Amino acid sequence: MLSILVWLPAIGALVGAIAGGRRTAGTVTALGSLGALGIAIALIAGFNGNGDQLTHVIDVVWIRSLGIHYKLGLDGLNLFLVAMTTFVFSLSLLAANLRSQARPELFFLLLGIAESAVLGAFLAQDLALFVGFFDLMLVPFYLLTGIYGGPGRVAATTKLVIYTLAGSLLMLAGAVALAVLTAQDSGHAINFTYSALEATRLGRGTQEWIFLLFAAAFLVKMPAFPLHGWMPDGYREMPIEALSIFSGVLSKVGAYGFLAIVLPIMPDAAVHFQTLLLLIGLASIIYGSAMAFTQTNARLIIGYSSVAQLGFITLGIFALAAQGAQGAVLQMVNHGIVVAPLFLIVALLAARAGGSEDIRDMGGIAMRAPVLATIFLVVTFATLAMPGSGNFVGEVMILLGLFKTKMVFSIIAFTGVLMASVYMLRVFIRSMHNRSGPEVDSREMRWRDAFVLVPFVGAILLFALYPQIELSRAQDSVTSSISAAASVAASTTAADR
Amino acid sequence: MTLPALLASAHPPAPHINYAAIAPFEALLGGAVVVLLVGLLRSRFVRYQVVPALTLLVLAGGLAVTIWQWNDHLSVVSGALRIDDLTLVLTMLFVAAGAATVILSWRARAPRESAHGEYHALLLSAIAGMSVLVAAQDLITLFIGIELLSIPLYVLCATEMHRSSSLESGLKYLIIGSVGSATLLYGLALLYGASGSTSFSGIAASIAAGHTSNALLLTGIALVLVGLAFKASVAPFHQWTPDVYEGAPTPITAFMAVATKAAAFGVLLRVFDVALIGENLNWAPALATLATITIIVGNVGALGQSSLKRMLAYSSVAQAGYIMGGVVVSSNLGAAATVFYLAVYLLMNLAAFAVIIARERETLHGDDIDAVAGLGAERPLLAVPLTIAMLSLAGIPATAGFIGKIYLIRALVDGNYAWLGVIIVVGSMISLGYYLRVIAAVWMRDSPAPAAALAGNGRPLIAGGSEEAASDGRDFEVMLVAVLFGAATVFFGIVPQPLFDLAQHAANSLTAFL
Q1: How many domains does chain B have?
Q2: Taking CB atoms and an 8 Å cutoff, what residues of chain B touch A147?
Q3: Is A7 part of a structural domain of the chain?
């Protein structure tokens, strides 16, 4: 079942590419992705929220000599991330189908491979497999940006790939070291599965240097301050559908890696570096928000707002409290479903502002486009975590969790919520209201654009009204994944006293 | 004393030779003679088509007897050679590289300008030399092997006789190679002086018994290391590599890059991990240092290159540094990782070189990076293998290079050389800078050459296109090699177990670890 889920998008894209034809490639790829979405929804419906056990496990020995398994499994932690991935991919693929471009087969083939790689990374229960998928999902985006991106695409994509691959190569070294040293400690044969690695806890010094290697990879991917150097260029040049996926989905893999891999396997190191990671999260919030105030390119404002949002998620994870981590997982899903439509809306806005993505050239677009304005407003409110939105629930839980363990951080982080409302409203007002820009041609969105955006709004409303649908299913898994680190943290605090 | 007894004491009995056991060498060298003679025939068809076909046949025969001897573990010619799984696995690699080279040079300029018979006979002798080298069990055979492989290569580098850079490359290789050989020979002499034995097992026993003079032994080890480092293009003895690789005919460059490297590392395993294993505490740190220098020099050197052949030359230096890690740890796992990486290295490099050869013939840019610009839109069947090769060299998942690197790092961590594993990773990061430049050129740039620049039949004249050779300027067999090796790179990236088993067998034949 999970194998079908993982590979369906890539197979769909491959079939589409071989079948050829301008229209077929995109349609078949989107169908493959929609099929994966259907499977994901079925999995949610059938998910039994009790306990932290893996379900639908597939465990085949892949490379015997290296102890690498092809092991996929579903638990409360990755369930909704998988669903969010298929959802965002499906809709972005539909959006991409609406415009024509050169060499569509390659475009959709790359996106299909990317979706399979992301799903694989979320579902992998083997560290080497995870690293494989983690690196693999970068290749399509490297090519997508480089081939279909804006004018500065080659420089931007090279920067992007060098940043992220540098991180993930370090992680590769860390993963191999982790498995080999665990095997030496436990006396068993080498085994890369999460369960085997969790069973034996390495010495604290070893955990610490390996932790740093993993953290580098995940923080670059998120991106977190100060490792976000690739982000502005990359975001500016990426084709918009790829960007909405990249920002909505790929950034979450880093955060997921912390929760699923780092905290359970290296709890001592996680506690040791807790303050450092919290500081990074806080710095990301403040830096991201401050930059979002000053930018005028709509893409970059949203990009920097993502840096800030991912900062929140980092805080939630490294609060090392059940509530914070749950909030972080909820927020990961929420952020995915708000940021993807934001970028798609930016594309619509740019089309109405003479092709410019600068908010100074926009303005007054709401005049003859009330539906577009409404949808944009809903998404904006969700992004700035208006009470009543799913993001509000997520952020409150993060701050609550943090308040219990590290009160000071929580108080400072609270300002981030305020700042978010300022910069998001700035985008909305400058683009939709105010004086009309020089080349603004206000017109309503077409039906087919609505076809893409309305499901996003529906999902936002669903999570706003009933976040429990996610929380109840994720609860047990999230609690168990941070339990090791939380107990280490508790005993350290007790020892301090 | 009777006369026969006197004669017998003057002429020691010739060693018993098990001719069946050395069948691979016989096949290759005998085939070389046949190919040379057939090449003398006047008919153009025979020289242009039959000779290469015959060479392929000889290689197939060599491969067949190699497989036939699988699991034999014979020690032949009074213990001078050992036919074990390491020898056989590496011989398979040489044969594969040789076959690819023959196919790649089918319509190339080099054999036309020298002579088909000589060209292919030299190639076969070089392959035989490599097999002898990795089968060697004593210092004398080692030296014979290394000369038998080097001398044909000196000539082969200079076979494009009307291009001065090819001649320069041959001469340069000859001079530097001779320096390397001389250094190696001196080192071998000192090893013999220190241990009193020329056989690897004798040296190992002498070291284990503590009968060696330390100063002599260490000097000998150092000189042997330098001599072999020249062959394996390990920094700081790599300076010849870019020049020779660039100047030599491209099929020969491909052959040197993959086969010579495999031979040099095969013999490094034999010498250091068997004969000198007792001194491992002394040489391992030195080797690790050399590996570090090699990784840095190779990767940094490759960054600024615009010639693809030079870039791959520096990349081969860097990859030699990675492979060196497998020798450093002196463990069974390390040896297996070395053999595995050599096999993987062969696959991905041959795919890359095949594409370069195809573009050399199709465009006016030679091996410049411009030659592959815009390939993605124009020739996907060439672009995809090149992309796979570059990704694999950089170590991206779903390619064999990724698994190879995991395997090497695993062996290093296991042997307490985790820091060298991190150096490999750092090297890979630097290497992205130049591998990705190629991918960027392939997919993200437009082809700079207007089609009108191609002469007459679609093949540029400077590439030596002649009437009967060029059909449409797209050489089917070159494309086949590219696609085949590109596909193999992906295949073994996803299903590496068969290669693992081969590598493990080969490593198990180094008895020191068992």
Answers
A1: 1
A2: 376, 443-444
A3: yes
Residue pair B283/B225 in contact by the 8 Å Cβ criterion: yes
Q: How far is CA A272 from CA A201, A328, B263, in A?
A: 15, 20, 48
Q: Do A66 and B414 touch (CB under 8 A)?
A: no
B197-236, pLDDT tens digit by residue? Answer: 888 888 888 888 877 668 888 899 999 999 999 988 888 8
- Specify the amino acid at residue A457: V
What's the domain count of chain A? 2
- At B311 the three-state DSSP class reads helix
Q: Is residue A120 part of a domain?
A: yes
Chain B residues whose CB is inside 8 A of the A184 CB are 414
A454 belongs to a structural domain = yes
Contacts of A135 in chain B (CB under 8 A): 396-397, 402
Q: Chain A to chain B, count of Cβ pairs less than 8 Å apart? A: 95
Q: Are residues B497 and A66, on separate chains, in Cβ contact within 8 Å? A: no
Answer yes or no: do A163 and A291 share one domain: no
What is the pLDDT at residue B388? 92
SS3 A469: helix
**Residues B456, B448: Cα–Cα separation, whole Å:** 19
- A245 within 8 A of A340, measured Cβ to Cβ: yes
CA A60 from centre of chain: 28
Element (H, E) at A72: strand A68-74
In this complex, the residue of A64, A128, A165 whose CB is nearest that of residue B406 is A128
User: Is residue B15 in some structural domain?
Assistant: no
Q: Give the structural domain span for A354.
A: 273-465
Structural domain boundaries enclosing B249: 21-513
Q: Rounded to a whole number, what is the distance in Å from the CA of B176 to chain A's nearest CA?
A: 36
> For each successive 10 residues of chain A (497 residues), what is the average pLDDT?
86 82 79 88 79 79 84 86 91 84 82 91 90 87 84 83 84 87 83 84 85 89 83 86 88 89 88 89 90 87 89 89 88 90 87 80 79 87 82 87 84 83 85 76 79 88 84 82 82 72
- pTM of the model as a whole: 0.86
Which of A60, A62, A172 is the best mutation test for B, with the most CBs of B within 10 A? A172
The residue behind tokens 């981030």 is: A416
The reply to whether B11 falls in a domain is: no
**By a Cβ cutoff of 8 Å, what residues of chain B touch chain A?**
336, 376-377, 391, 394-398, 402-403, 405-407, 409-410, 413-414, 418, 421-422, 424-425, 428-429, 432-433, 436-437, 439-440, 443-445, 496-497, 500, 504
Residue A142 within a domain: yes
Contacts of B336 in chain A (CB under 8 A): 65
ipTM over 0.95: no
Residues whose CB falls within 8 Å of the CB of residue A495, separated by 6 or more in sequence, listed in order:
none
